[in-house]
Write a structure and sequence with these properties.
With about 140 residues, this protein is α+β, with helices and mostly antiparallel strands. The protein has one domain. The chain is built from six helices and four strands; from the N terminus they run H-H-E-H-E-E-H-E-H-H. The strands form two sheets. The chain has a two-stranded parallel sheet with strand order 1-4. Strand 2 and strand 3 form a beta hairpin. The protein starts with about 25 loop residues before the first helix and ends in a 12-residue tail after the last helix.
Length: about 140
């Protein structure tokens, strides 16, 4: 897969171990979910370490990490991708979610509750047993 230059830094593996102090069995639980290809939902107040934990787990599992800051203006095209005119051509450019899926990366949707419902529905078939990211514009 050719990674768009704009996403290449996001798909880079974390080289140095991020500091993370476990407080229970969250590391083993995440590893177990990863082995079983199960999505994980992290819930907690701002500043409690959710992002650092995901960064640590990406490093530990040696997986690329893509982080998307969700907000109420985020569109499905922002997540999945869109056609862009480049020179004299119309080319498809993957969004961060599609790039993460293609690369087998961990995708951290930060503050997903802030995203619009019409945007988050694209995640449902990816997170359930179908494990499918539908890209309607690509057929």
């Amino acid at each position: 897969m050719k990674i768009p230059a704009s996403l290449a830094p996001e798909l880079a593996r974390i080289q140095r171990e991020p500091y993370y102090q476990s407080i229970g069995d969250e590391v083993a639980l995440f590893e177990s979910a990863h082995r079983r290809r199960l999505p994980v939902l992290l819930k907690g107040p701002t500043g409690c370490g959710k992002t650092r934990f995901v960064e640590y787990m990406a490093w530990r599992l040696q997986q690329p990490l893509v982080t998307v800051a969700c907000h109420d203006d985020l569109t499905t095209a922002d997540l999945v991708g869109r056609y862009l005119i480049v020179g004299n051509e119309t080319v498809w450019v993957d969004g961060p979610l599609a790039a993460a899926v293609r690369a087998g990366a961990i995708c951290y949707l930060d503050e997903i509750v802030e995203a619009r419902k019409d945007t988050t529905v694209v995640i449902h078939p990816l997170a359930d047993t179908r494990r499918l990211l539908a890209i309607d514009k690509r057929g």
